[in-house]
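Objective 1.3, modelling of assemblies. Example input:
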Amino acid sequence: MKSFSKKVLAGTTVAAVALAGSIGTLVAQEKPVIATVVKISGIPWFDRMNTGVVAYQEANPGVVASQSGPATADSAQQLQIVNDLVAKGVNALAVVPMDPAVLEGTFQRAMERGIVVVTHEADNQTNTNADVEAFDNADYGAALNERLAECMGKEGKWTTFVGSLGSRTHMQWVGAGEENAKKYTGMELVDPNNESFDDANGTYEKAKEILRKHPDIKGFQTSAGNDVLGVGRAIDEAGLSGKVCLVGTGLPNPSSDLLESGAITAIGFWDPQKAGMAMNAVAKLLLEKKDVTDGMDLGVEGYNKVSVKQGPGKGLLILGNGMVLADKATYKEHLF
Amino acid sequence: MQKTGGQLAMLVVINSLLLVAGALISGGTFLSVFNLQSMASQVPEIGLLAIGVMLAMCAGNGGIDLSGIALANLSGVLSAVIVSSFLSATESGAAFSLAFIAGALLVGFAGGVINGLLISRLNITPILCTLGTQMAFMGLAVVVSSGKAVTVGSPALLSSIGNDMIAAVPISFFVFVLVAGVVAALLKFTPYGLWLMLMGTNPKAAVYAGFPKNGVIIATYAISGTLSALVGVIIAARNVNVKFDYGSSYLLIAILIAVMAGVKPEGGYGRVICVVLSAIALQLMSSLLNFSGLSNFVRDFAWGLLLLTFLAVGRYDIAGFLSPGRRSQTPSVPVPQAPK
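Predicted structure (tokens):
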């Protein structure tokens, strides 16, 4: 009896210590709480977004803004976090869904409880009050292509890369690029829509093949985040830096070497920091029962004149102008 | 038997402790009806998978079921695709729900039987066999759904399983408790339960004693597969959509729950009630950490710590270790039942 209860006691003590060590403080708050939930925590993209949430909190002491996210890339884990936050009774959720479809049921329950739901990178989400996108995908694709055309002198062979043919945004980007290139009769699209699967190595091999097949190719427009690295390496190794143009989606830090060497002409991206701030700004507006209107200024750089449309569900689709094109001269302003 | 009571008592203590800690930290909202309901409706998915893992572990000879969540997703995806090809979720809600549930259970059962056949007839090591079938199930789900989420919708019956309450308790939690009860009864009162545990303890002796070894193995994996299918149904009911890669982290968590519940990885011992409590403990802990707004990496750390604590308390006499005076006499002294 004694030894048994001691065992239990010891077990509970150890567990209690484990708990005490791992639990922070949660203060009962009167201010409205805006909880940002990202796809995965601990990766550079969402660490950058967190700086935006922190900055928003500092600028708006009237609300409580914080960011959390699952430790593993699993939509079920993200779902659980959202469920717990709904139960905890936050006032607004700002979510970057891992998989919009999986979250529909929970968002519906959250909205029935009167919680404001704002999403990002999910323009097909039906159960949301507002979805915030950094830019219009067609505008972005056209802008990338315009930069490419400028570099190519508006003539010559060019090709496109997408993450996969099923990736909706990537196809929209290259589609808009092709439309834009039709303005210039000298530009000839060859072997379009190569699939890269966001794998820098695979892209590198494919880009080498294309350089062999079309020795006179002048330009590449790429879509997935790692494509510029793969294609850039192929161009660099072939000694074609500065002769072949490469414009695509990429992040400043990983691309810096290739930008310096001239293998990458320019990278396009949107800043997750600003997107995080914009989501929180929209959530706050909706909490205050204010309308988000066309042409409104959210007070965040790149979201000064948003265009507001009807989303796929009852919610709004808010498009900013948060696109950034950076080249060798300017990428240092956006190091992340 | 003394270990049994200890594990159970310990799980009860941990659960109560977590509830108290939650109440203290959140100033009461952790114990609000809504949060209790929210947690209760999150437990069944992972709890049912853990029961499946437990059964496979009990069968001994390195038994384990890694295909659980993949089979759950496959059941949901396949059944949704097939049923929605001839029934509409919006027009004939009840019929759609029943057909969907039946289809999913059938797929899960079939998947489990395949696992059982491969392991018993072809003598493939369970960990390799279920790793293989896990990939096969997942691959099939990808092919069937072309890698996209499949919409099940919210037909009346199915959506009530996912969202409604009976006497303020979520229906999915009722299903979980009911199924756990049935499995527990199966293990306790039928020859199958006795065979399973004895076979897990000593497979060779079981063969010589004339146990229907293959039958027991096939039945075990078939039950595990059916439980997975039930998970698939609950996922569909709650999330409106099913997808092939949902819950990829559940695989290891289910094993963690089973081990934390004192199921012997070498086979022959496991109690359903402990698995249920262990699943609830993990749920309480993760919700607690989400409530306190801590990083999810801390959660993994806390889970690991909890598991190590259980292993240490179960295997070594920590109590004796902590108080040197009693150390010499405790280890082999039989311990009486848990005090009420």
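Confidence is low (pLDDT under 50) at residues 17-28 of chain A.
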